[in-house]
Amino acid sequence: MALPAAGATAAVGLWWGTTVIFGIRSFFLPAPPDIIASFRAQPAYLLRETWATLTETLLGFGIGVAAGLAIAMMLTAWRAVERATFPLLVALNSIPKVAVAPLLVVWLGYGPKPKIVLVVLICFFPIVVSTVAGLTSTPADLGELARSLSASWWQGYFKVRLPWALPQVFVGLKLGVSLAVIGAVVAEISSPNQGLGAVIVLSGSSLDTPLAFAAIVLLALLSIVLFYLIVALERLLLPWARAISA
Amino acid sequence: MIELAGVSRTFRTRSGDIEALRGIDLTVAEGEFLAVIGRSGCGKSTLLRLLAGLLPPTDGTVLVGGTAVTRPRRDVALMFQRPALLPWRSVLANVLLPVEMHGGRRAPHRERACQLLDAVGLAGFHKRLPHELSGGMQQRVALCRALIQQPKVLLMDEPFSALDALTREELAGQLQQVHMDVKPTTVFVTHSIQEAVLLADRVAVLSERPGRVRHVLTVDIPRPRSFGRNAHLADVATCVAELTDLLHDTDAPTPMHIT
Ligand SMILES: Nc1ncnc2c1ncn2[C@@H]1O[C@H](COP(=O)(O)OP(=O)(O)O)[C@@H](O)[C@H]1O
Ligand SMILES: [Mg+2]
């Protein structure tokens, strides 16, 4: 905890020092105090836009998680279905989903809808892929144990396979939540009517670089907080997970 | 209790057939402790999986308690080389897993589970998770899980082979105690001649692949036996020597493998 804090402080110090020593102007690279000042000039506005981005992210992420888990469970229920569709999923996963952001605006208009849809699209695949990976990696000896206890298919699935997959599910959630924030911002940039992405677009057209930086800092905070919330949830729910991966 | 007659098992693989077991004839009486010993790859695990109903024989008949084995049975418990505990379940919940899988209620068995755990020296560990335990302790939990349903037949596949020497001896001692107390019919696969002589009423020596019963040695030493200095050192030495000869015997009619 102390070392990363020291590292972050040093980086901010270096950045600040550079802007002072080389006399870099604020619209080119603002110093930390400029950014704080920019935030303090209109906190209500910035927090409202942060809230907009947060709700899009969470709605999209929630839908993405529900759909991702459901699809992964359906795919792995039948070995043949999994074998037939998994390569397709991996291929779809590698398409850069942000590229469809402008199309979503065409199809769904300027409201929050295209943003939420992009978030769903971007976090859905990693969640499916890691959940499927988890559900298909049950160790042979646990499978044999279940069989030797005459476990029914349901018992094997819910008492062994699914719990075993949970650490992998969390790998997907951690990837997914970071991507979800990116998805929300990209969608907002391509139809800038609300959210921190819109703030960045507007500040760019008025050359208000400190405001853009304030928005970026808020985005980073949002992303970090969401990520560590999931990490905390994992530690709480799966205290055994790190022991297996070791 | 267990009867194997002319049992063979061949695996079909892409690179050809592998004949793991050929013409096994064996019987194990009720309450008897049979050790099975042989080189790796000679089909010992396959033999246990046939007995457990996890694998059908390609030929011959496998009877447990007078009926043909077609699928896993509730009164047959299996213990593996690795503990195979569910890492998210507490020690106690792991022991109760078979009860749950067989659709029973856990509460009536809880007390027995605790007694079993206490008997193997895990009294203070009921609520721990498996990763907080040493390998030997985990294997003891697996033993309790195998015993919770009061099985008539206990099948053990090299259960102590992943443990250090001292822990192995300690666990072998506990297993002897369990066997003397509850008398399950036991088939115990091992690599260790000492373990076989300590625990077994009879020791079946398998030949190299395809596994056949080369010899069945009766160990006529009164229980409780112990690894250390005891009154039957001479008998133990004779058995150990005989088994060593049988395992190293290359005159036996097994094909040589040159790879
Ligand atoms: N499911 C299987 N498919 C193909 N070959 C197998 C399978 N199980 C075991 N074998 C082969 O059968 C032989 C005996 O295996 P096993 O019973 O595990 O031996 P042991 O337990 O004595 O070391 C080995 O050569 C092994 O490769
Ligand atoms: Mg084996």
Automatic annotation (TrEMBL), chain A:
Any GO BP: transmembrane transport
Keyword annotations from UniProtKB, A to Z: Cell membrane, Membrane, Transmembrane, Transmembrane helix, Transport
Entry-linked PROSITE patterns: ABC_TM1 (PS50928)
Domain of life: Bacteria
Topology class, membrane: Multi-pass membrane protein
Primary location class: membrane
Recorded GO CC terms: plasma membrane
Annotated localization: Cell membrane
Transmembrane segments: 58-78, 90-110, 116-135, 169-191, 211-233
Entry's family note: Belongs to the binding-protein-dependent transport system permease family.
This protein's name: ABC transporter permease
Source organism of the structure: Dactylosporangium siamense
Gene, per the UniProt record: ssuC_2
UniProtKB/TrEMBL annotation, chain B:
Keywords from the named record: ATP-binding, Nucleotide-binding, Transport
GO molecular function terms attached to this record: ATP binding; ATP hydrolysis activity
Domain of life (superkingdom): Bacteria
Annotated Gene3D superfamilies: P-loop containing nucleotide triphosphate hydrolases
InterPro entries according to UniProt: AAA+_ATPase, ABC_transporter-like_ATP-bd, ABC_transporter-like_CS, ABC_transporter_ATP-bind, P-loop_NTPase
Zinc in keyword set: no
Limits of the ABC transporter domain: 2-233
Protein's UniProt keywords contain Transport: yes
Coiled coil: none
Protein name: ABC transporter ATP-binding protein
Organism listed in the record: Dactylosporangium siamense
